[in-house]
Amino acid sequence: MVHHQSRSRFTLIQKLIASYAAMLFLTTTALAFSVMGLYSLNRTAKEIAKTDLFVINSTNQLRESMLAQERLAGKFAILKSDEFRDMYLQRQAEFLTILGEIGKRDNNGRFRSLVMGYEAYRKEAERIFATGGSDPLPAKKEADAVVESIEEFSSSRQKLLAEKLAEADRREAATVKLTLMLAFSGFILAVSVAIFTVHTISTSIRKLKKGMHRIAEGDFDYDPQIPTGDEIGALAEDFSRMGRKLKELEQISLDASPLTRLPGNIAIERVLNRRLQSGDPFAVCYADLDNFKAFNDRYGYIKASEVIKLTGELIDETVRDIAGGDAFVGHVGGDDFVMVVGADRGASLCEAVIGRFDDFIRNHYSAEDLARGAIEGVDRYGVSRTFPIMSISVAVVISKKGEFSSAVEIAKAAADIKDLLKKSPGSNYLINRRRTIR
Length: 438
Known about the structure:
Blueprint: H1 2-7, H2 12-79, H3 82-105, H4 109-131, H5 137-216, H6 231-255, H7 265-278, E1 282-290, H8 292-299, H9 301-323, E2 328-333, E3 336-342, H10 346-361, H11 367-372, E4 374-378, E5 384-388, E6 391-399, H12 407-421, E7 428-431, E8 434-437
Parallel strand pairs: 6-7
Antiparallel strand pairs: 1-3, 1-6, 2-3, 4-5, 7-8
């Protein structure tokens, strides 16, 4: 027994969650390493393209420009032509532009040495142009020094580029290796969890399947006989509760009105009691048809039954449109209906029901009776009277927490309100003693 308690320390769901959490951690970690590796490689590639390759390519241009300036200065020293000086100045501007772009990306000691060397060359070159080409050897010496500085600078950048590429290769290999290890571990764990899950729950699933078939056959009291204590046992209890609920629904279905197919008194009482237990405010709308007996006497039972059926459909459709899926519509019997909605939807629902009913009911009277606005008939006491066109009255009870203790109390409050409504002609509704008449 003690051994069994030790094995049951963790529930099935807890074990599955722990296993899948570990698998998810390994998979996520593998993905994270992969993404980080790709991001790092991408960042390195961008840096190489933006800085290293640009600088290396630019140093080649600097070398070419420097050699061109040296040649142009030498030709000027020999031929004394201003054309060579203009061409020299163009190459000089080009050199300075390239030099500035390099400085934005790599302003290190070698670069600063290159700049200083070029400044020295510019002074010698300007002296050649100013003196008409006397003694070009100092300028030649400075030009050679600048070219040498460019070579050193380019060589250092190429060496740095090679180091970056080697480091990127190392990071790539390490990332791939670690990602594969983590992914493989996650795969092995996933297979182990799947085998464990199938082995653990297959027997109980067969029992639950049998229980489902028995319930489907109408044996709502069937017990699948699965021990409690874990999730499978809890699921078996849910199946038992479902069976009991289906049994209740079957009873409610038998209680439903055969004419309107709306839930009857048993369902109405259950809904009201459930709403009262929740403590949330709600509105109960009791509706009945005025002058229905006179209509029945004049037009006959079949026509009157059709009006009851269509009125139920009208109310049900209106409630769905106004109050949504959480609302309830029931048929007490005869021409009495109940609507249960949120406390804030009572007034708008009554107005919509009354408006639709008043339009709908006129289609069921003859043109002669509509023109007269009434029909002749006999009341329940056998006295001849004139009855107006049928209307609908809705008594609305707003139930707040603690105000009513049972469905019976709500029904009594609605009956009191309905007595007041009957004193007013036409379709109207009254919410807790405040009357609104159409």
